[in-house]
Design brief:
Elements (H helix, E strand, L loop, with lengths): L18 E3 L2 H13 L4 E6 L5 H13 L2 E6 L9 H6 L4 H11 L3 E3 L3 H4 L21 H4 L3 H16 L2 E6 L3 H13 L4 E6 L19 H6 L2 H14 L5 H13 L4 E10 L15 E9 L2 E7 L16 E4 L10 E4 L14
Parallel strand pairs: 1-4, 2-3, 2-5, 3-4, 5-6
Antiparallel strand pairs: 7-8, 8-9, 10-11
């Protein structure tokens, strides 16, 4: 499809995109024409396998912008493991319909050769974001955020002036993209949107489809651990190490889940929190493996447990409220067994 053949844009959503592009030049030309006509552009970059979380981003963009463009591209630069890239779910036809149902006007679905003509040779020009990208996911997945920043910078340059919508589920990614867009002066407003969760609290993710039924049930402990950390802070806990220990203990109760990290960080620069001060934004970050699937999640403790159900198990968790004269301790409370029938009473 060429820019000259792009159909007139409908006044109301039709349930399908007005155009699907595979060539970057045609996509860029179509959006230039949109802005020339005085319309605003919303942009939602994705790697496909769209779920309700992606659709919420598209719907938010559609409510705030005249035209919404969605990119669907599994970016090889952000995968360190070739097997992980190969296993990543791909449903192109269903994705186009899902994007249109949520309000997308245009869909960009480029081939890898269109994005990186020399691939699989190394891409000679790459974007790195120092500091924000070095810890947590950056340390666990070397090169990941360089791949993210490079592809998003390319998509921002092609899309042009717009509002770009990202989910808070990938909180570190959101922080990296915001810093990159600001530092490189892209004419893009980066908008963070709340995490969409399933009924048991698990954050929606394209990787969830790779979980077996038992693994899917076990994965619910991830948001439960975050909620336990948030409740501890609300109840007066002030030591990050204690909150981190609490989240780790919740995860440890589920043998099918292997914890990578559970940390309390500054909500702006993602550095480890020194003290849980009420005047500083905080974020709880967690990453774990369930079977062969690595899942990440996060929570703003100021927002509370955000509707995440309490753990369905006999062990409950609590943090000792703050007392500056005594060390703060994390404990697990269990039902106290009844005394034996023949136990002698103390005189």
């Amino acid at each position: 499809m060429t820019a000259a053949t792009v159909p007139d844009l409908p006044d109301e959503p039709t349930g399908r995109p007005a155009a699907v592009f595979t060539l970057l030049s045609e996509y860029a030309s179509a959006l230039d024409n949109v802005r020339a006509g005085g319309r605003t552009v919303g942009f939602v970059p994705t790697m496909g396998a769209l779920h309700a979380g992606h659709q919420a981003l598209v719907a938010r963009a559609a409510s705030e912008c005249d035209v919404v463009a969605v990119s669907i591209f599994v970016n090889p630069l952000q995968f360190g493991d070739p097997d992980d890239l190969e296993r990543y779910p791909r449903y192109p036809d269903a994705d186009v319909m899902a994007a249109g149902d949520a309000g997308a006007t245009f869909v960009l679905m480029p081939e890898v050769a269109e994005m990186y003509p020399a691939f699989p040779a190394p891409v000679p020009t790459a974007v790195t974001v120092s500091g924000l990208a070095d810890r947590w996911e950056g340390a666990a997945r070397p090169g990941h955020f360089s791949g993210v920043a490079t592809v998003v910078a390319k998509l921002f340059a092609i899309t042009g002036r717009c509002r770009a919508y990202f989910g808070e589920k990938d909180y570190q990614q959101l922080a990296v993209v915001r810093r990159m867009a600001n530092d490189l002066s892209f004419p893009v407003e980066v908008v963070g949107c709340p995490t969409v969760r399933d009924d048991d609290g698990l954050a929606l993710s394209s990787r969830n489809v790779r979980l077996s039924p038992d693994e899917r049930r076990a994965a619910a402990v991830i948001p439960q651990a975050l909620a336990a950390g948030a409740r501890a802070i609300t109840e007066g806990e002030y030591r990050p190490s204690m909150v981190e220990a609490l989240m780790s203990q919740v995860i440890a109760e589920e043998p099918a889940v292997e914890l990578d990290y559970a940390v309390v960080v500054d909500g702006n620069d993602l550095t480890p929190a020194i003290a849980l001060r009420p005047d500083r934004p905080l974020r709880l970050l967690l990453a774990a493996r369930v079977g062969g699937v690595r899942l990440i999640d996060n929570l703003d403790p100021a927002a509370g447990s955000n509707g995440i159900p309490a753990p369905q198990r006999s062990v409950s968790y609590a943090a000792t409220p703050i007392n500056p004269t005594q060390p703060v301790m994390v404990h697990r409370s269990r039902p106290v067994p009844a005394p034996a029938a023949d136990q002698k009473k103390e005189k």
